[in-house]
């Protein structure tokens, strides 16, 4: 959990949204593919990405994370503008907390990796109920998203 919090706090939030790169399209694609595979691997009925709290779906019964308890004021200020991005960061931290006690959950932290990378590289995403937009780069409609991404090929994002 400490690593997840440090990672979010170390993002240069003042530059998020200033960098536009086509590789961010691959990061958005890979997030949806990884999330679809989570549902497949765990035999859980797919939900919209916006409301998917992986820790809760795996059995976490602790209170949901309050991001202001863990993140810097810069993070809070930036995320305060967009509830949907804030939810993703909260879900990521909550899964990290859950994984500290349930080691088998560690593998699912990688689901959030592509979205975190977008922020780290100065890009920006907007996740809504019906779309995932990588700002000025890509648009992913989320109708039938699971069916479209569950069998897609893995993209190696390590070298992007």
Question: What's the SSE blueprint?
Answer:
Elements: H1 2-9, H2 23-42, H3 54-58, H4 73-80, H5 83-101, H6 113-120, E1 125-127, E2 131-134, E3 138-141, H7 145-149
Antiparallel strand pairs: 1-2, 2-3
Helix pairs in contact: 1-5, 2-6
Characterization of this structure:
The protein starts with a helix and ends in an 11-residue tail after the last helix. The chain is mainly α and 160 residues long. The protein is globular and about 40 Å long. The longest helix is centred in the N-terminal third of the chain and has 20 residues. It has 7 helices and 3 strands. The chain has a 3-stranded antiparallel β-sheet with strand order 1-2-3, with helices on one face. The mean pLDDT is 94.
In the predicted model, the low-confidence regions spanning at least 5 consecutive residues are none
How far apart the termini lie comes to 25 Å
Structural class: mainly alpha
**Cα gyration radius (Å):** 15 Å
* Major sheet strand order: 1-2-3
Give the total of beta strands. 3
The biggest beta sheet, please? Answer: 3 strands, antiparallel
- The helix content, as a percent range, equals 40-55%
Strand content bin? 5-15%
Mean pLDDT value: 94
Tally of contiguous helical segments: 7
Oligomeric description of these chains: single chain
Shape: globular
Helix and strand element order: HHHHHHEEEH
């Amino acid at each position: 959990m400490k690593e997840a919090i440090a990672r979010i706090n170390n993002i240069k939030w003042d530059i998020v949204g200033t960098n536009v790169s086509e590789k961010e399209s691959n990061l958005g694609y890979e997030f949806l593919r990884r999330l679809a595979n989570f549902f497949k691997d765990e035999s859980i009925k797919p939900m919209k990405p916006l409301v998917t709290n992986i820790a809760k779906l795996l059995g976490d019964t602790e209170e949901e994370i309050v991001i202001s308890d863990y993140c810097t004021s810069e993070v809070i200020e930036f995320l305060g503008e967009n509830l949907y991005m804030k939810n993703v960061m909260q879900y990521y931290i909550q899964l990290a907390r859950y994984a500290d006690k349930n080691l088998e959950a560690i593998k699912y932290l990688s689901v959030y990796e592509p979205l975190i990378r977008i922020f780290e590289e100065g890009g920006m995403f907007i996740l809504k109920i019906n779309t995932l937009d990588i700002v000025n780069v890509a648009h992913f409609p989320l109708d039938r998203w699971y069916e479209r991404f569950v069998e897609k090929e893995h993209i190696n994002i390590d070298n992007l």
